[in-house]
## 1
Amino acid sequence: MKTIHKIFCVLFLLTAIVACDIDKFKELQDTFKVVLDPDAVLNKKELVLKDAQTSQELSNTNVTYSVEEAYQKSVFTTDGTAIHGYQSDSPLVTFGLLRNIVATTENPTTVAITLSAEGYISKTIDFIFDGTAVVAEYISLIKISNLPSTIDYKKETTAITDGKTEQPIAIESNGTSIDIPVGTDATGPVSVTLINYDTQTTGDDFNAAQEFPDGFTMDNGDYIVPEGAFTLQIEGGISEGTITIPINNVAAKSNNICQSLIYINGFYHEEFQSGSISITTLKIIFGIIDRFNIVFGCPAATTCTLIEGVSFQNTGGATQYKYSISNEGNEITSGKIVVGAGETITVARGETIPNSDPSISLTALLPSGQEQVINLPSTSICTLDGTTIDVTASQLNKEYRQKIDLSIDCDNSKVALNNTMISFSTDNGVTYYPYGKIQAGILSGYFPTIDDNIEYTFRFNYDGPKEGTVLGSEINDGIITQSDINKICDEIN
Amino acid sequence: MSKIILSTLCLFLSLAMFAQEEESKEPKNNRHAIGIGIGTGLTFDYSYKINEMFYATARYNFFKYGVTDLEQEIDGEIFLVDAAVDFKGFDIAVSIHPFKSAFKIVAGYGSFQYSNLQVDAVFAESIFIGDVEFTTDDIGIISITSAWNKQAPYLGIGFGRAVPKNRRLGFGIEIGTYFAGSPDISLQASGILENTTSQEDLLQEAFNELKYLPYLQLRVSYAIF
């Protein structure tokens, strides 16, 4: 019996050991990594700032970002800096909504952000956060010293004494004027800028509609065929002033339902019939809004609203496209978008456009410098609402990469960049094209073909642009340098 | 510690064998017994004596245990860990006494209602990304679930008859294992830890070794007739 007793004890021990291979779990303690996403935000917008005239990325230009009051504590850069009041001389800035803010396609969050830079016309943009992980936004700023002939820019300033303006301000452009008399109440030094746009002429990287956060669509959904458009930027907290708009300058069109219409986005809307009024003077109380986007013209006779928008699907490598939406040959809006490998991007969702002769065009901008016009099933955008179009650029060669692990080992954790765009350049960083996206620390899928023997500059943005120049064959370990790793790890503590 | 446990088990085993040996002095013919056991969980059972060599047992086992807010260092970070084990199920087993002594070999089949191990881990302290503070709730949670097969063969050895031979009361001990196969591991993570799910393969590899679920039971039985 004693023998059986011993056997039993041995069996017990044996069973316990077999049941749990301790070595495997000890090994797991060393190999298991907690993987952190270093982004403070979701719904990322990756801004690429360009000079509107030269199409080159802005360099050595300090841009200040101002967020509308309601969202000043909601919008941050990926590395956790508030965008409101943020200053950067980088052409690449990535920001998004704090993670606890839920934005969806059905319930998007729209945030107006103003970009100001010395020597450039400041620009207010309505950024729509709709749950898309990351979207590239190409923003062009217009240099005041190099204005296109279609833009008239005038600015006046005055100091204040005892809370009142010292000098009168009177600015006029093509009959449109703003007057602020001396002695007007103000909270600080006053600066008034009047920018008058010729709405019929556009450049490669700007058009008048882009300068208006809501384009030419009114709050009621009507689309104004613009005869004139201007913005007023007023700093100094002025209590009131007078804007004069010459209604008789608005060309009456027999087919239009109004003689003329003045619309100030979200603020003022008035129609004038029969041309009985030759000049209307609007007296507007300032101090509530410091920027006015004013359009005059008439609502389009017929419109179509793109309820679902038009979706572009790309089965090739990530590609940059330029799209343009026009009516009767006049460009309504245009812009650049990036459609990543295997992704679908929807444009013009919810937009109202005139439909007498609406059209859309799409051009792929290829790393070779070539442009490929994408054939669309119809050029009439109104008929494309709700459709998904394969826009894969056939002239862009693609290659499949199984898995490039770009995750970063920091001291206490592993960091995996997520939904982070990578672009590449063949001309030492002058012109960048999309290469792909890091997802959970991994590059995988289809990418534009690169040559093993050519040097490329790769770039991504986290706490400022991170650039590295490597041979195509060294992409596996050359995109993120050690200094990048140190900076990224430092941001997480 | 393990030596103390082992010695205690061996002592109990000796008592169990002694009890069975004492029983043999007053022959009776008990055929049905109920039992309660404790070990790797709590067990209730009913046993039927087929003959001197074979006994059939149906038993219900359950083991539910959890700890909360256990501080653990994982990959250099301090985590608060909640761990819970939940095993419930029925076994049917046949005890074979090859030497017609108290020594037995037990073969059976287990059917688990639950066979889960759940571990949830959260950061113990806030972290900052730039100026943005992530509280432990904001950071997210890492959840590991391990689930074994719902059906598993069982094999064990022990001492003590399922139905006491000559007395109303009997004692026994049994040790064995379920051949449950490798468990399915699910690793889920949320918030800024979401990408930790990429470590699931590593976990699965380690847990692949856990093919055998141990079973230990110290049992008291009562012959009902």
## 2
Amino acid sequence: MTMELLTSGEFIIFALLSIVALVSTYQMVAVRLITHAALFMTLTFTAVAGVFLLLQAEFVAGLQVLIYSGAITTMVIFAIMLSGLKDIKMEAGAKGRGWSKSNPLLMVVGLIFATFMCYLYAAANLPKATEATALAKVKDIGFSLFSTYVIPFEVASILLLIAMVGAIILTAKEAE
Amino acid sequence: MNLPIYLPLGLGALLFGMGLWGALTRTNAVRILMFIEIMLNGVNLNLITFSRYYYQTNPEMATRAPIMTLFIMTVAAAEASVGLALILNVVRNRGVVDVDKVNLLKG
């Protein structure tokens, strides 16, 4: 890496966002309260949304903030708050149950995977980026979503409907 | 793009790896679901990175990755809602959220 790259604004912003994302993912594992883990998850998602903006995918960044940081976090926190069980809110024990000496050892599983992937990317000798002549505009995305990809789009909406019905059936108390 | 492609790809791989670590080590079911979301997010980051670096030469190609990401997010949302409903059901019926204690099928 050259000095020019290290001082470029692009790199500095990317470095800050990835540090935020990785540290808050680590905190999700280490923190004791589940609610705090959910809030750290939101922080990770927001940092990744920033990386998406850096990659000039503003549509995906918007989706990320709306669906992940908004909807999924709200759902997780609601699920935590609505259940009366104490266990779901806080894992027992000083540092939380399941946080034993073997955990840093198990971290190796994730790290080996990440190292292997990075090795693959480095060995693949990927070519330099092509000149971006056509950025994905939201208008184009909407147009192809309703023309080329209209059947997958409708199937996705049916999937969401079925998931909603399933969630309601699973959680609704049986009428006596 | 002056940023080398390895950096966003590496961030995606690290997010996936840390999500895998968390999903394997923690026993709280809600937390495991959250780590699965993190892993899916790492996958999305890889998709968008490849699209940004190599496939933005015409509008038809450029729209593919955002649409694929949209479908992944749809599946993630559906999975999260059904998963949380299942967890709430287990909590209501058995009073545990620890996946190690849900062992009815264990021989």
